[in-house]
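Worked example 2:
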Amino acid sequence: MIEHQDSGAHYARYLLLSGHVQGVGFRPFVYRLASEFGITGWVENRIGQVAIHAEGRARDVQQFEQNLTARAPMNAAPILKEARNTATRAYPQFVIRASSSASECDIRIIPDLPVCASCRTELFTALDRRFHYPFINCTNCGPRYTLIEQLPYDRANTTMKAFPLCEACAAEYSDPEDRRFHAEPTACPVCGPALEYQDKFFHQHESGAALAACVQALREGAIVAVKGLGGYHLMCDARNDQAVERLRVRKPRPHKPLAVMLAPMQVPDYVAPNQEQLRFLHGPVHPIVLIKKRKPDPLSALIAPGLREVGVMLPYSPLHVLLLHHFPGPLVATSANISGEPVLTDNLSVHQRLDHVFDACLHHNRAIVRPADDAVYRDIAGKVRPLRLGRGNSPLEIDLPFTVASPTLATGGHMKNTVALAWDRRIVVSPHIGDLDAPRSRNVFAQVVEDLQHLYQVTAERVVCDAHPDYGSSRWARNTGLPLSLVLHHHAHASAVAGEYPQEQRWLVFTWDGTGMGADQTLWGGEALLGEAGHWQRAASMRPFRLPGGDRAGREPWRSAAALCWETRVSWQAPIASAELVRQAWEKHLNCAQSSAVGRLFDAAAALIMQRHQSSFEGQGPMELEALAAEGDAEFIALPLTRNQQGTWITDWQPLLPVLTDTRLPPTLRARCFHETLAHALLQQALMLKKFAGEFAVGLTGGVFQNRLLAGRVMDLLQGAGLRCYLPERLPVNDGGLAFGQIVHSHFAAATTRDQSLR
């Protein structure tokens, strides 16, 4: 800020801005602002930063400086990093200099952005040269993360270098007054990427004819693989039962819900969103949002069978906008991948791996450097929260409330994997990668690890991973040769909540999920951890039981149901041919790890109430159970809470079994009773620990709290009892937030070790 200066005196300031200032039209904004206030000098892109020399009358320079942040472009988030007086140079005008790489790095990567209103208008203006051009974009919209090869963010460092600008586009690109000044992905039908349609009968079409052929195929009930910003979607008519059934059979994906893409005007006709859900649908991320179905449901009943919600997104690329403009209804838009793997991104791999699934392809020739699946959000406890990071909201950058001792890479978990890179006071969390069982998932995992370090020009000097030795992420971490820290799965979950809400100092965090290795080598998943990030004590848990088959129980809920019944001698006949052999192994303690996981209790309840004995995707039984419970009403059962010899409070689930197995009671009542009972059991643990351990904030984390009904009831009960309660808002509550928690936990654990060594 300029102080004690003659407001009319000639004056000069050097300004350095970091934050999101590249790829968002910040330099032309600075140029126009300089013209407005009569400023001379220059603006220059550096690696992740923008430098400015501004000179003019003191009051004009002051107003210019103030407006740099106050009036920044809509996708920019500038941070004034340095501001100082400098010598005047008597520049005759204000210019935009060429980018410089000779500077300290402070890189911020912009996620891919949905098509903006201005480009939408041009897209449908018949006389515009980009009329119906499916790759229209400007500095306010279009791909970023998925096409950047290296920084600084210039066209030559993106996949757009394959498309030399025509004379008209070059003129826009070079004009600081134009909306497309240095819009690196800019193009037009003359010089830019183009569509290509191929079907199984070797029919091929290009450009506008390709789009028309795709729409016609969708109208006829075909399944089409469509290449978007961060990968391919498998698309078909969302009202056509036969088309949806063929997609499910071919993929195969018998039950897992499918996302639906709707034109904005179609939303109220197909789903019943609230205002907050609408805000997220139309917001800068344009994610998939889980929204309540209409009754009667106008979509195919095969879209989300057994569930009350459907995942909906709006068209976010100009290609999607055109598809929904020409196709008269909603489209299934599910990721084109092998189940659990990252979305496919290139023409050849789609044909090699999914040729048996689709009837035709709509390709384009703009290369995708790295996959970015669609982000997913759900309204839980009154706020729309992420269930999956992806296209539009990641890489997710968070300012840390501490300084990382050395650049650190966290490798996350095995399921729903994300990775994180932390340095100084910053952390970047990657988009969703997937489950690390398949070779392609592990290859993409390694690529993302390398990409984050390459793009941000930060080299990890240490690695943090899950303590489970057999996770794909942990095996990779052990082979880096870097100093390695191990973090227990649920300690990382708890530290993720604590890291997102650093204003709280002492916590009781409920870490409820399906599995994770605990400190005693058993399978945790129903724990209440007391303490602070880096230092957790197991204060409460659920009664453990021997789980037959280990990891197989996640896809075979009958195993959890049988284990509870065998454990308590409740009569229940598992309708599985191998059940007696499994019981014999269970009685001999063969392949039967101890588990306290609430996720497995949900599996058991789904099997006992709904006969969901086998699951075709992770969490199927619990999701269906939640939908069933939402239709019912019931009181809770008071569960015994006792303290074991180790001082841990244990809730006994056994009194639930008579209700869960009583087929005379309506399934909706039994399902609702199960939810209410667990919510009150959690409250009971929290109140007991408050009595013995004093004040704390309560955190909820782990995949179980994706359950909207349970999480909402828990929050209501805790807040009604006067307790402060938190659910993640920026990060997924599931394993997608583990990498962030690993960074937070390892920092505070190491800090305590350093402090103790100095004493």
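The chain has a mean pLDDT of 94. The longest strand covers residues 10-20.
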